[in-house]
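Researcher: Next entry: GTPase HflX (Paenibacillus naphthalenovorans).
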Amino acid sequence: MKKTSYEVMPNAQEKAILVSLVTAEQKMREAYDPEFSLSELASLAETAKVQVLGSLTQNKEYADSKWFIGRGKAEELKAMIEETGANTAIFDQELSGAQVRNLEQFLDVKIIDRTQLILDIFAQRAKTREGIIQVELAQLTYLLPRLYGQGKNLSRLGGGIGTRGPGETKLETDRRHIRNRISELKRQLQEVVRHRSLHRERRKKSGVYQAALVGYTNAGKSTLLRQLTHADVYVENQLFATLDPTSRSLKLPNGLEIVVTDTVGFIQNLPHDLVAAFRATLEEVCEADLILHIVDSSSKMMAAQMQVVDQVLEELGAHGKDRITVFNKIDLCPPEQADMLTTEGEFLKISAFREEDLLRLKERIEVRMTGGSRSFRIPADKGDMISLVYRIGEVLENEVDGSDMLFKVRVNHKAFDKIGYMLAAYDAVRPAEGEQGRDV
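Model: Predicted structure:
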């Protein structure tokens, strides 16, 4: 039994033992680190305001169908619970309803798995109507097939982790009520999707360029959004500090404005029900013109975290979108570690608290947005065409050449795709090549 010291939270209602099962299959995964996963579970518990009293790890070929960690280890866990006075056991893996029931009857404490803990944190964080709908839908979808294993768990007094939101209704007694509620939530979510689609169509018609911040939870996305746009967003050093997406206007050095959207952070083993429920929100990533993948460069598990983000983006169908990897928190990295940071494609190393780094990021976004320049030779008497030149981007140079006007224009791709075809006859030079795959 591994003893671990955790921060004391005297006001915490829940007091828990963390339990992890390391199977042969998990050991074969290159990106899996059981110690990091357990440490992350402790952070999740702290975010849910749970006092962690200790942890227990079991190495086993495969999960026990009845006891998950095996009968012997379950007895060891029971002794640990009695010794510490814990009232909750939090498992780092997902449990079946039968395993929850068996462990709950044997240990006489509340049994929570990683998925339920994440769903509970989302229930705390959801503030908007859309967020609340999505969290409740994910919780109900998760709980429905496990109701027969949740009886004692859901009837415990005092609420607490695993029973917020829909857990406060008598879920175990009315499956039909839950199915009806799920149908109603899906209907409400379809309405949300319709509204979001309308907003996206308006943005497309107006030619607004949109960048989406994505990344592992606690990578510094909200901090970066606040520093870039001076947005009044909640920032805290904890997992899933922000849940509801936030969009703010950002003015680039060339004077053009874009929309930057902060999205919910990803995490390893992100519940599928949660991804499905939040698809309406996460689709903002798919609709963005540019993805800014924010990476915590100071994290020891940086590579694994980047892989998790790639997997979720692939699930969403946004893996092939235009992207810049932003290695954040570079000020927390030793110089030798910072020098080794690299990845495929275009990347940038910054600290969200350094003005010069924020300027470099804005300039990089600007280059991606415009992609280069075009030159046009337009007869001086073509006033409508000259006006159009100023509408498709930023005029860098202009001069008179006989009866013609020569323009060098940094092109806004969206505006050019929409109305630039009218200038095709006056296009004198191909677009200049933009930066590719190098950090500057």
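Model: Note for the record: The CA atoms of residues 125 and 243 lie 6 Å apart.
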